[in-house]
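ok so dumb question maybe but i'm new to this and my supervisor (M.) told me to 'just get the structure for Metallo-beta-lactamase domain-containing protein' and walked off. so i did the thing. is this what she meant?? sequence i used:
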Amino acid sequence: MFTPVAHHIWRWLTPDPEDHWMMVGHLIQGNQGVVLIDPPMRPDLPATLQALGGVLAIILTTHDHTRGARSLGQTFRAPIYVPAQASRTNLFRAGINNPVFYDETTPLPLDLRAVRCTVALPLWQSETDPYVDEMMLVLPGGMVATGDLVMGSENGTLLACPEGFNDPADKDKVKASLAVFASRLPKDSTTLLASHGSDIIRDLPELIYTRQRDFGLS
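this is what came out, is it supposed to look like this??
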């Protein structure tokens, strides 16, 4: 069920029930327990997690990735961390009623930290409704986890939102998403854990440079 990504990090996936893309969750195993990032639900997931000793915490990168958080949070009595800027309406509809709201200053389990990624205010969005507004999670060892902002493709390239969701993708939106990701990414980052598509292992700086060059951003 789980595919190893790096030391003590695994991923799993399941089809989105309403769309054509895959949802990806990540499991991080630390000394204090297991942390899940944007976990999609599978019938066999609770039993597998129980065999690992349960769940310490669930962390969402965006209110659009509530996925299996409510059910897993209830089953394991685990706190659900949600970005402070998340839509309360979206959370209410997903049945997440008492989350732990976090921002860039909030201590997170297993020494994770958050970096807010808000795509600049392009012409097609209002100031109160940015195109993308999520948290990038920074893990030890040069790894970051994202929600919808970026992902790896099947052929090993870096995709920026809405690539991977829309085909063809609006190039202005792609350029804006890529610019925000590159500007907010810690300099020592080499690996991307993506909540859609493929992870990128160790090649992240080179792939960012290639895409920036394509758009004249480098």
